[in-house]
Design brief:
Helix 3 (69-83) runs parallel beside helix 5. This protein is α/β, with parallel strands linked by helices and 402 residues long. The protein has 13 helices and 16 strands. It has helices spanning 21-25, 52-56, 69-83, 103-107, 127-136, 156-173, 202-206, 232-236, 249-268, 286-293, 313-321, 343-359, 378-401; strands at 9-11, 31-33, 40-42, 62-64, 87-92, 115-119, 140-146, 181-186, 190-192, 212-213, 221-222, 242-244, 275-280, 300-305, 326-331, 366-370. 39% of the residues are buried. A four-stranded parallel sheet has the order 6-5-7-8, with helices on one face. A four-stranded parallel sheet has the order 14-13-15-16, with helices on both faces. Strands 1-4 form a two-stranded antiparallel ribbon. 36% of the residues lie in helices and 17% in strands. It folds into four domains: 9-64, Alpha-Beta Plaits (2-Layer Sandwich), CATH 3.30.70.20; 69-186, 3-Layer(aba) Sandwich (Rossmann fold), CATH 3.40.50; 192-244, Alpha-Beta Plaits (2-Layer Sandwich), CATH 3.30.70.20; 249-401, Rossmann fold (3-Layer(aba) Sandwich). It starts with 8 loop residues before the first strand and ends with a helix.
Length: 402
């Protein structure tokens, strides 16, 4: 008998007015209205937990476990009390990388110190949150969201822009400074260093979006309008001439190295096994939030990826040879991939990686799995299962050395 999986979203019929606003704004057609009963129904298999329906519902009939107004407001209040800062920078995960932050982007705004709030999509944030934050004493709010054509949740950026423009009009009428709420748009793109390029053309053939064109008399050319920042080109470039900003090979390698030092310290105190997780930023919400707050297990480190296609197998090998007992790669289910083109690239890379690990007798130290934030506890369950597996592998080794 199959156990029903707990999900993170629910529609309460007793509060629903059947206005159908939720079905109109849902980017994934996960909400529909029954023609006979007129009741709203949710198809959890289509839902991708963007949260847009929740903030659009006028009756508060939809409940989502992630990022409700009270928790967001409480977070901002705590940060203001602890830091004394009165500038909030709210960003989409898809609009800025986690590895090098957004400092350069904010130099133009002359902002150096700020409270950071990073969400899967800014389009999910209701106007009430901004008004409550201003009421708390926040003097400036800068919103950095994805460019509309590159929104990972299809219509999230468009909806977010419309809401913020209306909110700015309201703020102006309340005689607040025009800079109280500002909007900036950004999109993850490949960064190309032509001096490093040898013209091998691997990036041209690997790009699933045809954003890189072969140039017979020079180096390939990137059409940034077509680039969606998947990172596939960076992964195959033998000279690191093309990389994804914020997820460049060297910063990620340095991050693996820093984490490996922490892993060895944990193991020296008997906290085992040391596990490194490469996690697609759309396959899990809570765990990636915990990275930023530092509230994760001492022996478990997590590195965020923009997409599984951007995982460099070398980083997996580096982790296994620098102190980690196991490496887990967590990706989205195929039907939930935010970068749908080029799925075969990730599969081919994973096949090649496993083949190398098998030759090195390290295959049992590696695992890849899929998780979705829609299913509560999915990530934690699979992580715990992997930890138990690695523990059973290293236990005999530990006993031998004692």
């Amino acid at each position: 008998m199959e156990t029903t999986r707990a999900v993170g979203i629910e529609i309460y019929e007793e509060y629903c007015s059947n206005c159908s606003i939720c079905s109109a704004v849902c980017p994934f057609e996960a909400i529909s209205t029954d023609e006979k009963s007129g009741k709203v129904k949710l198809d959890i298999e289509k839902c991708q937990m963007c949260g847009i329906c929740v903030t659009a519902c006028p009756s508060s009939a939809i409940d989502l476990v992630y990022y409700d107004i009270d928790s967001l407001t409480s977070y901002v209040q705590r940060q203001m009390n602890e830091t004394g800062l009165k500038t909030l920078v709210l960003t989409c995960r898809g609009s800025n990388p986690v590895t090098n932050g957004i400092d350069e982007m904010l130099k133009k705004e002359k902002i150096e110190n700020f409270i950071s709030l990073r969400l899967p999509c800014v389009g999910r944030v209701p106007p009430e949150f901004f008004l409550k934050t201003i009421a708390l004493g926040m003097e400036r709010i800068v919103v950095i969201q994805c460019e509309e054509d590159y929104c990972r949740f299809k219509r999230g950026s468009q909806i977010g822009t419309n809401r913020l423009l209306l909110l700015r009009a309201l703020i102006d009428q309340l005689n607040y400074d025009t800079n109280t709420l500002t909007l900036t748009k950004n999109a993850m793109k490949a960064v190309y260093d032509t001096e490093k390029c040898v013209g091998c053309g691997k990036c041209v053939f690997i790009c699933p979006y045809d954003a890189i064109k072969w140039n017979p008399i020079g180096t390939p050319e990137i059409n940034l309008e077509d680039c969606v920042g998947c990172g596939a080109c960076a992964m195959v470039c033998p000279h690191q001439a093309i990389e994804l900003r914020g997820y460049e090979y060297e910063p990620v390698s340095q991050l693996v190295q820093r984490y490996s030092i922490k892993a060895r310290k944990a193991k020296s105190k008997g906290v085992t096994p040391a596990v490194l997780v490469f996690c697609c930023q759309w396959s899990e919400f809570s765990a990636l939030d915990n990275i930023q707050t530092g509230s994760f297990e001492e022996n478990v480190m997590i590195i965020e990826l923009p997409c599984a296609k951007g995982l460099d197998p070398v980083h997996v090998l580096q982790a296994l040879y620098s102190g980690f007992d196991g490496v887990l790669v967590v990706t989205c289910p195929e039907d939930e991939c935010k970068l749908e083109e080029g799925k075969e690239i990730a599969e081919r890379n994973m096949f090649a990686l496993k083949k190398v690990l098998r030759q090195l007798n390290l295959e049992d130290r590696f695992e890849n799995c899929t998780t979705s934030p829609k299913y509560l506890g999915d990530f934690n369950s699979k992580l715990e299962s992997f930890i138990q597996k690695i523990s059973s592998i290293i236990k005999p080794e530990i006993q031998t050395t004692q």
